[in-house]
User: Fold this.
Amino acid sequence: MKLSIRKCDITQIEADAIVNAANSYLEHGGGVAWAIVKKGGYIIQEESREYVRKNGPIPTGEVAVTSAGNLRAKYVIHAVGPRYGVEGDDKLESAIRKSLDKAKELGVKRIAFPAISTGIYGYPYERCAEIMAKVILEKNPEMEIIICLYSDDAFEVFKGVFSKYF
Ligand code: AR6
Assistant:
């Protein structure tokens, strides 16, 4: 496994899959989700709606896959993280674990994650970083993982936490 912590915009990443911080209805109206649709094209929102129409809403902690439209990535893995203080850390663990499982199933060699649940859903960066590090350590997946942080603050916190474990 190769791991890097970067300050970046996930829509610019060249990877087989990028993970989206989604809601259960895959309505990508804000945050990183909106950035992905804006850059990748409305096809991502359309495929998302089709998925929910066929399968119903995605429970917190679960994932769904669509294409990545015009992005450099092949797939978007939409992971539904928990709302801080409303749903538990186990759901964030699950969202990360299932993203990695799905990536493996899709033959992904390089995947990029945003800091799921740390925007609109309110998770502190440190808590998210600890949970991500724990799941990645446990799974030790055979792929390259990029953790993509959007703000200086998030980048510093993630660097600090990950340096304890990796
Ligand atoms: N690249 C990387 N990270 C980003 C980008 C970007 N282009 N833009 C924002 N972030 P959020 P959530 C960071 O709110 O908390 C959406 O409306 C951002 O700074 O996108 O899981 C969904 O549709 C933050 O650290 O996701 C759901 O309704 C992190 O991405 C809801 O928000 C996650 O912030 C999900 O909330």
